[in-house]
Amino acid sequence: MMNKKIVVVGGGAAGMMAAITAAEQGSDVTLLEPNERLGKKLNITGKGRCNVTNNADLQTLMANTPGNGKFLYSAFTRFDGRDAMAFFEDLGVPLKTERGNRVFPVSDRSFDISAALERRLKKLRVHLVRDRALHLELTNGTVRGVTGEEGAYCADAVILATGGVSYPATGSTGEGHRMAREAGHTVTPLQGSLVPLKEKGQRCARMQGLSLRNVSLTVYENQKKIYTDFGEMMFTHFGVTGPLVLSASAHMRHFDKKNYRLEIDLKPALDEQKLDKRLLTDFEKHANQDFCNALVDLLPQKLIPVLVEDTQIPPHQKVHELTREQRRVLLQHLKHFPVDIAGPCPVTDAIVTSGGVKTKEIDPATMESKIVKGLYFAGELIDVDAYTGGFNLQIAWATGRAAGIAASEQREQE
Q: pTM score, two decimals?
């Protein structure tokens, strides 16, 4: 029997996994990618270290996928974080597990992941074509191939894995969403997830460049606490960013109808009683100084003027004149430093895209379109997204694998 001809559109994480999997099943695979290098976005993940997956079981993967996680149940069941680890170690990439079960190459080099995938593609004789896909070729509700800028590619099945619209410089330009729409699919609104946040006002801008480590961040949605985490963040000219903020942003999904506020605990290691003792010790040391100069042992310099202003304590009031009530107000601001959020930065600044091809129009077991026979989807193109920690790459691996297997097994109807 002749080998199935499969065209995979997109040479990112999901596309490479789909191409490898389909080729392992014996299919004749062509991989279309316009970039000079495969895995361009993959190579910048995890600050260039590549948080390749999470050392997690099915339940943990589901719990960390707020964007249509149920759709991924079947794909995760057949290929979870530990399967992904075994896959890459079999390709010769030693891995290590860090805080939060995040998995990285031992080398801390994302290029080791992309290079291993490229070696596997080459060994399986996947045809890599440097071309940009323009249109799907459809006949009577069945995909017949892909037209690119440089030529036409006939296929028994096509796997679209073009990514979202975050980091467009890596090739994620939304072309896949356009092709999916042309084929009759619904694309849900695209917005950033794991994205920096813009503030209301100019308080953060005054602290631009200041990084905070070992702080606790809490998100309030219309006064209701919805998320809290511990780690590091940074103030910018537009608002806030950093690992804590990116993680928090994935929980903030209704900017059109709800208000969001961040509260930073600047001293999470100290409860209020211990922090009050620390204040008394510092104030005794700086008893004859102005209040605005008495916090140098407690806080970074850039933060002090903003905090002092927030407390409404006169900056030049002598420390020995501070009342117990004023000290209580200061303590509250140290434990609950507020940042009102106006909204997310543009989706182009996001790590991942929230929104995409509607999951109800895709078979969750095979990733095949319910609208076009022989058309499959994988990765960020689909309306699925997860929290930070390797979970989004795990979606790419699991959906790419599911699509590669199913596309190879599919038989044309006469």
A: 0.86
